[in-house]
Amino acid sequence: MGSGKRSLTTAAMVLACACAVLSAPGVAYASPTPAPTRTPTPTPTTSPAGKDLEAIRKKLDALYHDAAVATDAYNAAEEQAKQQSAEIVDLARVIVKGQDKLDELKDRAGAAARAQYRGGGLPPEMRLWLSDNPQQYLDGAGRVLQGEHATKGLLAEMTRTQRDLEQYAKDASAQWQKLEANRQAKATAQKEIKKQIAAAEKLESQLQKKEKERLAKLEEEAAYKAQTAWLSSGVLAEISGKASEQGKKAVKFATDQIGKPYEWGAEGPGSYDCSGLTSQAWAAAGHGIPRTSQEQWRQLPHVDVKDMRPGDLIIYFDDASHVAMYIGDGAIVHAPRPGRTVTITGAGSMPILGVVRPDA
User: Fold this and answer.
1) How many CB atoms lie within 10 A of CB 97?
2) Does the active-site annotation cover 302?
3) Which CA distances in Å does 230 have to 24, 154, 246?
4) Which residues of 20-37 are buried (b: 16+ CB within 10 A; e: fewer)?
5) What's the pTM value of the predicted model, to 2 decimals?
6) pLDDT tens across 89-145, in order?
7) Dihedral over alpha carbons 308, 311, 317, 319 (to 10 degrees)
8) Is 287 one of the annotated active-site residues of the chain?
């Protein structure tokens, strides 16, 4: 019995320690530009059930990162499919016009051939000898010769038109094959997105309410530490650029979307993914930019971080899989990931690849 009491006492002590761990204060990341001197309170990462929440946080980051990469691939395939569909429609219009032209040329060539046949029963010498008016015959012969030249011209134009139609048909076939390839790429990317998001949601669903709260604090703390390190470099003191007029319009559009949910492949108005938000913001400012974060990084002019100004786009991660809009004072507005809404956070809260300027 004494042994049983000791076991109960030990269990009670363990439970009390576990409660103390669960009630330990976390760090709330409330500002996109926190003071570098602030020291976050350490957050315990191991729950009573033995879950390593820091490892879970990193796993979730990896899953959502892979989903973002797949989303960029989906968006790229979608854009290319739209472009190829438009090109196929244009080629179809050209082919129809070319076929109409070829039919007209055939009719004209046929009429010329019939006219030549009607006047060509006797040899030219015999027709000249039998003619009552040799001069009139010679004039007519000249017109026949001109008609023969015209017929040859018609035949040559028919040949060119036929050749063009064959080339247009080959181009349309090639575009159709590309369209089908991009449709398959879209389908593959869509499956990958759903797979990664489902895995992340399953992992999160296994957490208890208090664990989810602590996980959220861990995410905030990680972002805070990254932002603090970025600010501690003194970079904000070097950034003094003022937004262009178009940049101001883009920033206003993007910040007006705050609170709207993230949705992969979405371009508004009710939801956005990261590049959907930035591309639509700049479209609203009257300046079209590429649809995906990777193409924004590849095609838009690069600027140094110290030279960036509100409206510029910050590209994140080595694979350019995320993009946000700089709004000044060390902050960005962005659509983070599934399960989150458009929000403002610190520009240094994620690894920066570089900065691009749509209206350079």
Assistant:
1) 12
2) no
3) 27, 73, 27
4) eeeeeebbebebbbbeee
5) 0.64
6) 888 888 888 888 778 777 776 776 666 555 554 455 445 444 555 555 455 545 555
7) -110
8) no
